[in-house]
Amino acid sequence: MSNPNSGVGHNEDAVLHSNMDSIIDRLIKCDNPHNGLQLPENQIRFVCYYARRSLLEEESLLRLKPPIKICGDIHGQFSDLLRIFHLGGHVPKETYLFLGDYVDRGKLSVETLTLLLAYKVRYPKNMYLVRGNHECAKMNRIYGFFDECKRRYSVNLFRSFVSAYDCMPLAAVVGKKIFCAHGGISPRMTCLNDIADVERPLEVPDVGLVCDLLWSDPDEKTRGWGENERGVSYTFGHEVVNLFCKRMKVDLIVRAHQVVEDGYDFFSRQLITIFSAPNYAGQFDNAGAIMNVDDNLVITFTIIRPTYSVKPGGSQGKLLSATGLNRNL
């Protein structure tokens, strides 16, 4: 005998997909991506609600299969996010892993995060979102996202976004051999299951494994583990990277969290920093990059050039920094 309610779930999914398609289409086809698009607040909160559900269906440690495209910080640069999809291919034709810091600093964090969350709801197996250190209410109150939500919408919308990214996974492993996190690794980590066992939703703690995954940095001058000038977490040197890869049986660490001139930068031959916001915050002449991982784990990069440049002298070498910026990227 057929179940009279058998079509209910299917119909609900169809309505949800239709709503997400409409929101995605409006954002992707935004007439002026530098000025953004004022979506109705109830539609954005609708996205956040379903994104929370979708994110919590995943483990805190994502285990993903190639091929996949990996991106670093976006920081509210909505027009550059659209360029990423134009250059790298659109979802669901392509699968993406973003490594956090979707908001703050850039002026269109609402559109940026809404589009990514809508993609997550609509195509959960083609869009993966790892949490960055700026997916944190405390950071947002300092670096712009809270003010943007309050000015353009309401404090309640900000809370809806926070409730969504409190559910984001913390790291990923691609093809069993590429470890990915926003910031880096942790001295408290003994195995990959330490991450998988973290329960969500959660706020970002001030210390510990989760904090380190979002905040730590590689450093050429550090031997072992060192004090981080950000005032949070640690720095780590070449030998720590090599030991981590050996113990976790991975070949490569991919992380974001720092501006790099060419959009990507190598450290210790087993770690890559990827940054996907070109001309970051309007203060650097850096390129952004997309890391392409094929079925055989062969890596290539797609470079995203700035659409406009800062004054000569804005570029400061392979690993860029600036007073007031590098501390809390």
Automatic annotation (TrEMBL):
<dbReference type="GO" id="GO:0005634">
    <property type="term" value="C:nucleus"/>
</dbReference>
<dbReference type="GO" id="GO:0007060">
    <property type="term" value="P:male meiosis chromosome segregation"/>
</dbReference>
<dbReference type="InterPro" id="IPR029052">
    <property type="entry name" value="Metallo-depent_PP-like"/>
</dbReference>
<keyword id="KW-0479">Metal-binding</keyword>
<dbReference type="InterPro" id="IPR006186">
    <property type="entry name" value="Ser/Thr-sp_prot-phosphatase"/>
</dbReference>
<dbReference type="InterPro" id="IPR031675">
    <property type="entry name" value="STPPase_N"/>
</dbReference>
<dbReference type="GO" id="GO:0018991">
    <property type="term" value="P:egg-laying behavior"/>
</dbReference>
<dbReference type="GO" id="GO:0097723">
    <property type="term" value="P:amoeboid sperm motility"/>
</dbReference>
<dbReference type="Pfam" id="PF16891">
    <property type="entry name" value="STPPase_N"/>
</dbReference>
<feature type="domain" description="Serine/threonine specific protein phosphatases">
    <location>
        <begin position="130"/>
        <end position="135"/>
    </location>
</feature>
<keyword id="KW-0464">Manganese</keyword>
<dbReference type="GO" id="GO:0004722">
    <property type="term" value="F:protein serine/threonine phosphatase activity"/>
</dbReference>
<dbReference type="GO" id="GO:0031143">
    <property type="term" value="C:pseudopodium"/>
</dbReference>
<dbReference type="GO" id="GO:0046872">
    <property type="term" value="F:metal ion binding"/>
</dbReference>
<keyword id="KW-0378">Hydrolase</keyword>
<protein>
    <recommendedName>
        <fullName>Serine/threonine-protein phosphatase</fullName>
        <ecNumber>3.1.3.16</ecNumber>
    </recommendedName>
</protein>
<comment type="similarity">
    <text>Belongs to the PPP phosphatase family.</text>
</comment>
<dbReference type="InterPro" id="IPR050341">
    <property type="entry name" value="PP1_catalytic_subunit"/>
</dbReference>
<dbReference type="Pfam" id="PF00149">
    <property type="entry name" value="Metallophos"/>
</dbReference>
<dbReference type="GO" id="GO:0005737">
    <property type="term" value="C:cytoplasm"/>
</dbReference>
<comment type="function">
    <text>Probable phosphatase which plays a redundant role with gsp-4 in spermatogenesis by regulating sister chromatid segregation during meiosis. In addition, involved in sperm motility by controlling the dynamic disassembly of major sperm proteins (MSP) in the spermatozoan pseudopodium.</text>
</comment>
<dbReference type="GO" id="GO:0031272">
    <property type="term" value="P:regulation of pseudopodium assembly"/>
</dbReference>
<keyword id="KW-0904">Protein phosphatase</keyword>
<dbReference type="InterPro" id="IPR004843">
    <property type="entry name" value="Calcineurin-like_PHP"/>
</dbReference>
